Amino acid sequence: MTAPTVDVHAHVLLPEVEALVAGLPGLAEARALDARRNGPASLAVSGPMVAERVPKLTDVAVRLAAMDARGVDVQLVSPSPSHYHYWADEETAERLYRLAGEATAAHCAQAPDRLHGLGLVPLQHPRLAVRALEHALEQGLSGVEISSHAPGRELSDPAYEPFWARAAATGAILFLHPFGCTLDERLDQWYLSNVVGQPTENAVALSHLIFSGVLDRHPDLRIIAAHGGGYLPTHIGRSDHAWSARSDAGAGCAHPPSSYLRRLYFDSLVHDPHGLRELIRVAGPDRVLLGSDFPFDMGTEDPVGALRAARLPDADFHAVRGGNAAALLRKD
């Protein structure tokens, strides 16, 4: 039996979440930072782009029709990263992750054979992380979505150790999807905030997980890195060299950094068939999953066609197209 075609990088917009934070202290400051990071020209394009995609982001019937047109059987649906709101205080953050998990679960429940969902974790409050993960799993979700960092905390922060341990023990899927790059105004033209910022944040976050030994301590973690892991997989040789050449670089992890790529999962969204082939070479054909960033403009309208353009062996093509993700979702 042929495995279904599974897209692991697809988003849902949750108006309930935005209603929850509307008018709260901190929101205006967070939006001002986002505006500085993106720049006025990018904001002028992004607003209408998102507005015209609201039906695909909120209406299950429209979503399913779009999936059919793309040849996608199943989506792993994560909240729009704009819903992270890592500025929120602890009380608001708890209400937010509960609302996001319940709303995402309700969205997916309208087509349970085709939609699997992810919740959110307030990384700015590490002591809530385990509770947020467990709440998501209680809703029948497959795991949670996290960003590349929280204000003042990298993913290597020891405060997250209970979260990593619980995620490994439960087999939850963790979808690592950045939102906002700390290079700030250096990237405020030509949409560099996303074009360069997202793959940079992916590379930094994964490097923290690798070099700090998180993946040594929690080898059963099931992390999917969006955007093909950003710049890291194609430059992992530099990480290996540092690990072997410098005592400070090699102090935190037990093995060469490149070996950890085969403990992670990556979506296929690299926008280049040669880059995709290289990702599959370094991570393994069993560690790459189809991803489209549905329905945003920085995604692909034809994820299967983009995969086909890499001219992979048939077994690898079908593994990435859906076999790997189907196996991952069956473990939930």
TrEMBL record:
InterPro entries found in the cross-reference section: ACMSD (IPR032465), Amidohydro-rel (IPR006680), Metal_Hydrolase (IPR032466)
A GO molecular-function descriptor: carboxy-lyase activity
Keywords: Lyase
Transmembrane segments: none
Top-level division of the source organism's lineage: Bacteria
Signal peptide: none
BP-aspect Gene Ontology terms: secondary metabolic process
Any one cellular-component term (Gene Ontology): cytoplasm
UniProt domain Amidohydrolase-related: residue ranges: 6-330
Record-linked SUPFAM superfamilies: Metallo-dependent hydrolases (SSF51556)
PANTHER family listed in its UniProt record: 2-AMINO-3-CARBOXYLMUCONATE-6-SEMIALDEHYDE DECARBOXYLASE, ISO-OROTATE DECARBOXYLASE (EUROFUNG)
Protein name: Amidohydrolase
Species annotation: Streptomyces phaeofaciens
